[in-house]
Amino acid sequence: MNLAPVESSVTRVTLSPRLVSELGDPHSTLRAATQRSGAVVIIRAGGEVDASNEHTWRGLVAEAAAVATAPGPFIVDINGLDFMGCCAFAILAAESECCRARGIALRVVSCDPGVARVIQACNLGSELPLHPTIDTALGTSVG
């Protein structure tokens, strides 16, 4: 991943103790790493997002988005997810609206054609712009 155009310092984003506990639970099906470089915040998600961990996904997305600063972007890399329920897309779409109000672009990274079909079928293309890699998401102009 090339963060050089953004800034050279990459740091982990500190999440709330509750969220760290939920993500660290041995029975959790959701894994995530969150990092920041300048105005850019990136979540790399793995495992599954469904109704059983919807509240954890919502918390993760909200906490990471809160750290992002304009112009961002706030990037959610879901290439590591094996399953993503409709609830996860709805959470991303709602957070995208909140980010946009703050001058931050939320961008989704996935190579899965199924993700593209869901985004298209739900008419979420403007809320959830899809990129094949983090580098392409970083290279997209803000605005």
UniProtKB/TrEMBL annotation:
Domain of life: Bacteria
Xref: CDD domains: STAS_anti-anti-sigma_factors (cd07043)
Matching Pfam families: STAS (PF01740)
GO terms, molecular function: anti-sigma factor antagonist activity
Annotated ranges, domain STAS: 30-141
Similarity-based family: Belongs to the anti-sigma-factor antagonist family.
Protein name: Anti-sigma factor antagonist
Species assigned in the record: Mycobacterium ahvazicum
